[in-house]
Specification:
- The protein is mainly α.
- The protein has one domain.
- It is about 80% helix and about 0% strand.
- It is built from five helices and no strands.
- The longest helix has about 40 residues.
């Protein structure tokens, strides 16, 4: 009999099945996070062009006051979704928590964000997934 040389316990069949769901959740987070980041950049670009066509300084001041925080929030949330998705591929515990938080916030984005959020939360709270994150992913360099 061959002895397992690593300190990690073997990964079960159910954990392997859940790893596939974790990968799907990671891809969803990266794709949706990228869409949010691209949207933030498009908004910033649009606000830059508006400057050329609006003569009212008060309107430009209001656009800056409202637009800047919205763009920054979009970049922060999109970046957090991308970072969490990348971390899920390596079964990082911090990525699981971050993705759960981002998925819970995404529940408010009806209907697509709700469906995505429910699926991701379901995947990440399964006992097999929790033990997978405690052991580390099979085949990943931790």
């Amino acid at each position: 009999m061959e002895e397992n040389s690593t300190s990690q316990t073997p990964v079960t069949v159910e954990e392997n099945r859940m790893k596939k769901h974790v990968n799907v959740a990671a891809i969803l987070q990266i794709v949706f996070g990228s869409i949010i980041v691209i949207g933030a950049m498009a908004c910033a670009l649009a606000l830059g062009f508006v400057d050329q066509y609006v003569d009212d300084p008060t309107a430009m001041k209001i656009l800056g006051i409202v637009g800047t925080p919205v763009i920054i929030l979009m970049l922060v949330f999109g970046g957090a979704m991308i970072a969490g998705g990348i971390g899920l591929f390596s079964c990082r515990p911090w990525a699981r928590i971050l993705t759960l938080v981002m998925a819970a916030m995404g529940l408010l984005n009806i209907p697509v964000g709700t469906l995505k959020g429910v699926y991701i939360i379901w995947v990440l709270v399964q006992p097999e997934t929790v033990s997978l994150f405690e052991k580390g992913c099979p085949g990943s360099a931790s």
